[in-house]
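Consortium newsletter contribution from the modelling node. Members have asked for a concrete example of what our holo predictions look like. Here is one, prepared for the zinc ion complex that several groups have been discussing at recent meetings.
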Amino acid sequence: MSTAISTSLRTLFPILIFICLGWTDSRLSATQADLPEDHQRGLAQITEGRVKGTVAFLASDELAGRGTPSREFNIAAAFVAARFQGAGLKGGGKDGSFYQETMMREVQTPASGVVYQTTAGIDLPHFGLLAATDAFDYSGPTTLVDPEQDLSQLKLDGVATVLWKSEAKGNRAISQVARLANSLKAAGAKALVLYTAEESELVQLGIAARERSRIESPRSQISLPVLLGKGDPAAGEVRLTVPGLIVTELPMRNVIGVLEGSDPQLKQEAILFTAHLDHLGARPGTGEDSIYNGADDDASGCTAVLTLADAFAAMPTRPKRSVIFMTFWGEEQGLLGSRQFAAEPTWPLEKITANVNIEMIGRPEAGANEKIWMTGWQASDLGGLMNVESAKIGVEIFEHPRFSAMLYRASDNWSLVEKGVIAHSFSAGSLHADYHQPDDEWERLNIPHMTRVIQGLFIGSQGICNGLVTPKAAK
Ligand SMILES: [Zn+2]
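And here is the predicted structure:
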């Protein structure tokens, strides 16, 4: 008897496990089955296959890191517009276009044409230009300036000369030069000669500035011609001739699709889902892999925007409020696309109920699978409101102890916050070692996690989209 029991238990055991698992499974789908039909139809659009298919294309080597500006960025923008159109959205730009375009200046410093001499005609050694604005020609005295002194009291005329000692790298070095140039310009200087060592970062940046054109962003705008001097600062009378910048005007585009709300009143108001389409592009000669794919940053966010557009558009009853889907250009150069939208909004900003900006959702921190953190948690009640709903499908939206405060100003939501809109970034990731590196590849993304996060954002925003709740800014 006992043998018979244990045998039958042994036989039954796998079946029992199967039943338990099956029971758990059916309970999970029972939770989804409790959701309204509209929500279920939307959720059915957000599958791992679709998520992977979209992000693998956006982060492919063929799109060359979607640099600003580049032909590949424009291809990515055309893809987003086509997907919006395919989902049945209306163009949210001027005259029903899916694009909001602006002309950007792409600038390059000229490789030759600089004259730097004593007035007696003796050439002074230099590494060339770091930056130039307009063509400039000057003969007269130079003034040696100590950058540590109070520059606001300074009165200058002609060329300022500075011994450059900073060890800042890359963008930080450029910002420091830009700040110094601005102060010297305000003091009356017409050009700046920075004396530096050959191994200085500025010399590398000077070479890059004449080899490659770049988008002029407010952060990198240097308001004076800057020449890099060699050796000891020249004193006395000099002659300086600098050619003007080589300028190309290029169109850049935000892509905007609108799903009009179904309520005659509430449709005036909109919830805005955004992500930045650009990344760092390709940097040939930097190593074996020179393409910065930006799979997590921020092809993952754009994939969320596209998949959410499909999900909302698939609901048999459209949400009461309008839902706008948008991708930005130029985030990596200083939030340029979102600043453009904030300056020339195609939807009245006071009628934007909330901006859900999606950034880096593909690589969760340890222990934070299927969880989303919102930046600027304390600035409004948006995160709490969305969490109540996303919890229905088991996705948590929370305040990250470090990143929520630290990164509130670090992405495109900030351009809208500055205009008084409730705008936050939603992230479900980590600052991993591949951040802003060529290894930010789609193969390293956690697709099941990403898919659940997008589902969480979809369910999490239903109350707001349907006018049941309205987020409020903190007092
Ligand atoms: Zn980003």
